[in-house]
Design goal:
Number of helices: 7
Largest sheet: 8 strands, mixed
Distance between the termini: 28 Å
Structural class: alpha+beta
Order of helices and strands: HHEHHEEEHEHEHEE
Radius of gyration: 27 Å
Length: 287
């Protein structure tokens, strides 16, 4: 929202243009108020400047600069048809390949972590999509545009539903995430629902977040907070779990703390080379 700035009144004829004269005799117990007036004026100018700067740097302003079209987010659970977009987003969001849950980490592309999780427990995933009309988004690119699906078949304007953020998760039985939770059974396609000692645990009361990813072009636009808050509310309302857990690197601890997570301490998980912190939020304690 733009700040309306009002110009200060013009000085009266014959008075100093810099400030009005407010000096009185000390014997009348008066004080020099001119310094107070200047101080108030400086504070006003600083406030106006701060509001302008915050408006330029707000998530909404960044989003408007990042997208040459009106951004209307569509938040929905992911499914197997979103697999290619999830892979493209994961690769873009995580510069370190060791931290990605992508096919190259498995012996065969058909047995990737994403394929397993989107097939086994899609109800624990969530995606933020935006509708992009090619004619209105010329020269605009994002890593998931090529894998986006049409909003409707034979829609005249060719609109696509583009994935810009996702959360992919499983259940686990502990209060925090372990390396076994990060893994998946390589024979999951032939297990026919039989449980395994790694991967998704259907009876678990902790949701383990394995991937929270936002397209780099939209970093700083509030999309990450949007999807995390929506996800936590969805898990609480559905009563699917008692808590949500994740692991993150040092620089993200304060970010998740602002979203309500508690830092439990260093995580023993060695996935991706280790160096993680355990973060947990109790859904029952959410406001």
């Amino acid at each position: 929202m733009a700040t309306t700035e009002q110009a200060p009144p013009l000085p009266a004829e014959g008075s100093s243009p810099s400030r009005p004269t407010m000096l009185h005799r000390l014997s009348d117990n008066a004080i020099d108020e001119s310094s107070d007036a200047d101080s108030d004026f400086v504070k006003l100018q600083k406030t106006i400047s701060k509001e302008r700067r915050e408006a330029r740097e707000s998530p909404q302003a960044r989003l408007q600069r990042a997208c040459p079209f009106t951004f209307h987010p569509n938040i929905r659970p992911l499914n197997k048809s979103d697999y290619d977009s999830c892979i493209a987003l994961e690769n873009a969001a995580f510069p370190d390949p060791a931290h990605r849950a992508t096919p190259e980490k498995a012996s065969s592309p058909s047995y990737s972590h994403f394929d397993y999780r989107l097939s086994t427990c899609p109800e624990l995933s969530l995606g933020v999509f935006c509708t992009v009309v090619p004619e209105k988004a010329k020269n605009w690119t994002i890593e998931t545009l090529d894998t986006a699906k049409p909003v409707e078949t034979d829609r005249p304007n060719g609109a696509k539903s583009v994935l810009v953020a996702h959360i992919v998760a499983t259940r686990c039985t502990g209060n925090t995430i372990t390396d076994k939770d990060m893994d998946y059974p390589k024979d999951w396609r032939t297990r026919h629902g039989r449980s395994a000692d790694v991967g998704h645990q259907e009876c678990g009361r902790t949701v383990a977040l394995h991937s929270v990813a936002v397209a780099p072009k939209l970093h700083g636009c509030g999309i990450g907070q949007m999807i995390v808050k929506a996800y936590l509310q969805q898990m609480k309302d559905a009563q699917l779990a008692d808590r949500v857990a994740l692991i993150c690197q040092d620089y993200l601890v304060s970010y998740y703390e602002r979203l309500g997570f508690r830092c439990i301490g260093r995580s023993p998980v060695e996935f991706g080379g280790g160096g993680w912190h355990d973060m947990v939020i109790d859904l029952g304690a959410m406001k």
